[in-house]
Amino acid sequence: MTLLLPLLGFAFVALLVYGASLAFAPGGGTAIERRLSEVSVGRSDMTPTESTDHTVLAALKRIGAMAPRSTKEMGKLQQRLVVAGYRGREAMPVFFGIRLGFAVLCFAIAASPVVGRPSFMMALGACAVAYVLPGMILARMAKRRQNRLRKSLPDALDLLVVSVEAGLGLDQALQRVSDELAFAHPELCDELRLINLELRAGTGRAEALHNLAKRTQLDDIASLVTMLVQTDKFGTSVAQSLRVHSDTLRTKRRQRAEEAAAKTGAKMVFPLVICIFPAIWVITLGPAVIKFIQILLPMAQP
After folding, report:
1. Tell me, what's the pLDDT at 22?
2. HSE of 215 in the Cβ direction (CA atoms, 13 Å)?
3. How far apart are CA 111 and CA 12, in angstroms?
4. 87 to each of 77, 84, 113, 118, how far by Cα in Å?
5. pTM of the model
6. Residues whose CB is less than 8 angstroms from the CB of residue 168 and which lie 6 or more positions away in sequence, other chains included
């Protein structure tokens, strides 16, 4: 095992140097592709910080292109990236690059004598944890964005009701809401702008609304989309339907707050038992136990 670690270290360093040379090497392809990349990335008005960011982004994309991928994982990961707000084509290669680079970095740190005695098993464990950790962070980011969308939906519906009652059509009302709430609720406004862009590109209103539900993966938005599609199909009052749906969402939000408040007592049990009760026992019973030991220990000795 002692002789195996230097060989593994040499192989790892060689692979790392090879990967770095591939990541930072100039792009291949035809002369037209290289010229287009120079025009799009190597602009003269780019600041040093932007140039560094583009270099790091290109390196992550190259590393992500070399990462192994599972066909079953691709669909779920793409959906999670969209829910988290990353809809660009380079989002998935960059994510794979971050995950692979972070795993390799943690393996190198754990295998080196920087953090202590090098251990191959500990390095493999650190590499596995670092490989899984970016996916967990991405899921957390997607959940937080969904919570922000859920909280901003009632305010957007109120403004949408006012806009529709003022005489605007549904498409113009969505555009108005996205413009007015851009500072307070930027995530929801970005989704509404995408609806307007799809409508301008010729997509049907029902399909654009269903795409909104697919991008956000929220039950509240899915129910709103269903209501708007049915209202458009049957010709009922959009303003009245939106008003009723807004009241329903506010009631659901209040019920969620009451549910979270009701769970507080059960969630406080574990911190109390693990952190507070032992300290209380030590403070209250510690002096008495010490006194008993001082009195009973001499009596127990023959």
Report:
1. 47
2. 19
3. 10
4. 12, 9, 40, 40
5. 0.69
6. 176
Alpha-helical (H) ranges within the chain are 4-24, 31-41, 48-66, 71-84, 91-111, 120-165, 170-180, 186-200, 205-216, 219-234, 238-267, 269-271, 277-300
**Sign of the CA dihedral 135, 140, 145, 147?**
positive
Q: Token pair for residue 141? A: 């980011």
3-state secondary structure of 65: helix
**Do residues 122 and 141 make contact, with C-beta atoms less than 8 angstroms apart?**
no
Fold of domain 146-264: Receptor-associated Protein (1.20.81)
pLDDT of residue 143: 92
Q: Where are the domains of the chain?
A: 4-118, 146-264
CB atoms within 10 A of CB 150: 19
Contact between 135 and 99 under an 8 Å Cβ cutoff? The reply is yes
Looking at residue 292, its pLDDT comes to 81
What token pair was written down for 71? 């066909």
Q: Name residues of the chain where pLDDT drops below 70.
A: 1-54, 56-73, 114-116, 300-302
146-194 residue pLDDT tens: 999 988 888 888 888 888 888 888 888 888 998 888 888 888 899 999 9
